[in-house]
Every structure is written in C-alpha cells, then in structure tokens.
Design a protein that fits this description.
- There is one protein chain.
- With 306 residues, this protein is of the alpha/beta class.
- The chain contains 1 helix and 23 strands.
- 35% of the residues are buried.
C-alpha cells in the first residue's frame, strides 16, 4: 500500500513538472516570434513547376510589420497564396518583394489594420477580393503590369482616398471599388474598355468621374448610390446605358447623352431627382425603354450641355 502511494505521488510530481515545462516553452516561443523574423511566421509552398515558392501566413501571432522575403531555399518567392493573410487584423504594414508576380484571391481581405502596402511593378495578377474590406488603407498604386482589376478587389476599402490606375488596365470588374466611401475622385485611363456591374456603387464621397472613351456600355448599377456624384462625362462611343446604372445619384445636376446611345434600360436614372438631361439626338429613340427616366426629369432634345 505504501509503495503504491509513493508511486502515485511521484507520477503527479512528474506530470506537474511536464505541464510547467510546456507552458514555459510556449511562452518562450511566443516571445521569440515577437522579436525575431523566423520561418515559422510564414508558410512556403513549392510551386508545381518547381520554379519558386508561394507564401502564406504561418504563426504570425501579433506581428504588426510583415516582411515577405524574396527567396526561400535559394528559390524566388513568386506568389502570395489565396487567403494568405485573410482577416489578419494585426498587420499594419506588409513589405512585398520584387520577386512577387501574383497576389491570390482574398490574400489580404479583412486586414482592417493594414495602412500601408506597396505592390511591386513585377506583379501582373491581383486576384478577386485581394484587398476587400481593408478599411485602413488610404492610398494604393496599381502597378503597370496589371491588365484587369478583378471583382471586389478593393470593395469596402472605406478609408481609401486615392488610387492610381495605370494605362495597362483594360477592364474593371464587378464591385471592384464598391463601398469605397472616402474616394472623392478617380481617373480611369482610356485603355479601359469595360467597367463591371456595381463597380463604383456606394462610393458616396465620389463627386466626379470620367468614363473612358473606349467604353461602349455603362453596366447595371455601376454608379448606384453615388449620392454626391455631380458631374460625369459619357463618351461618344457609348451605345447602351443599362438598368439602374445611375440609380439614386440624387445630387447629379446635369448629364449629356451622346447621339450614339441607342439603348437606355429601365430606371437608368431613377432617384436622380436634381438631374437635367441633355440628349444630343433630336427625339427619343425606340431603343430607350419607356421608364428610362421614371422621375420625369427634364430632357432637352438636340442639345449639347455647355
């Protein structure tokens, strides 16, 4: 009986020591991760062609400044994985090396603390949702190699006040800048030929915007809810203004519809209660639906806005 109690006591002592040791090690590892940049902070995956690595979040804990290396195991780090830093709100700044050519889907989505990020010129792909909901970002420059701004890329970036779009961009996807409420103006280069549904919807701070000369269709809900939009220029190449394209742009005072616009869909200007419409054509074309101007705003036919 005595020996059994002695063994039991010894086992309890050993278990207690083991628990203390494990607790101490975990605290030590946390301290090391907070002070030093280690490979445990980031996870690297070899690309299928073996030419380099992709990177995503490892055990970052509460690091504020994330530095992605340009090489790993003597090979270049080429891609940021999809979901790589999804909802990592502790990051204030991320340093992306020049070796990166692709930023994956939702790579930085929900990084609400992110205030600064520089996208290198070698990046040719920024996937959908990449920076969605990064409410702390105030300014971003899109590199020259990007051909398309994908769907939802910057949607919900409520702090974004400035964005530079290069001449390499030919397409802006659905919801690309939706809900960017601090954006007051944006210059879209003439290289852009298409702007998607809801692309600038809910940009309540937007006061003016240009539609590039090569765009032929103003898509559905493109400027929906841009309540402070006052002026907009529709180029001569536009042939169609889609359903609710300018819905609830209630402070827009004047717009000129070019002579080549053969189709205007229902409720295109619904809620534009301050609007005067200048139509270059002398009378209403058959392709303009009956309720294209549901609030019966004044239309001046055969007129060009001064």
């Amino acid at each position: 009986m005595y020996e059994r109690k002695k063994v039991k006591k010894l086992v309890l002592i050993l278990l207690s020591l083991l628990c203390l040791l494990m607790l101490g090690c975990s605290e030590l590892l946390a301290d090391i991760d907070e002070i030093y940049e280690s490979k445990r902070e980031l996870r690297f995956t070899l690309l299928r062609d073996g030419s380099g690595y992709s990177v995503s979040r490892g055990l970052l804990y509460s690091l504020k400044y994330v530095n992605i290396p340009s090489t790993y195991n003597d090979l270049p780090v080429k891609e940021i994985n999809e979901l790589a830093f999804l909802n990592y709100s502790n990051a204030v700044s991320v340093s992306i090396p020049n070796s990166i050519t692709k930023i994956g889907r939702s790579a930085f989505a929900g990084c609400t603390g992110l205030k600064s990020i520089t996208i290198p010129n070698r990046v040719t792909t920024i996937s959908e949702d990449a920076f969605k909901g990064c409410t702390g970002l105030t300014r971003i420059i899109i590199p020259n190699g990007i051909a398309m701004i994908e769907s939802n890329t910057f949607s919900g970036c409520t702090g974004l006040t400035s964005i530079t779009i290069p001449n390499s961009v030919t397409s802006i996807g659905n919801y690309a800048f939706s809900g960017c409420t601090s954006l007051t103006s944006i210059t879209i280069p003439n290289s852009v030929t298409s702007i998607g549904n809801y692309a600038f919807s809910g940009c309540t701070g937007l006061t003016s915007i240009n539609i590039p000369n090569n765009v032929m269709i103003v898509e559905q809900f493109t400027f929906y809810g841009c309540k402070n939009l006052r002026t907009i220029s529709i180029p001569n190449n536009v042939v169609k203004i889609s359903w609710r394209a300018f819905y609830n742009c209630r402070n827009m005072t004047s717009i000129t519809i070019p002579i080549n616009v053969t189709t205007i869909e229902s409720w295109a200007f619904k809620g534009c209660t301050a609007l005067s419409i200048h139509a270059e054509i002398s009378s209403e074309p058959e392709g303009w639906e009956n309720d294209w101007n549901p609030d019966s705003r004044p239309v001046i036919w055969g007129s060009i806005m001064p």
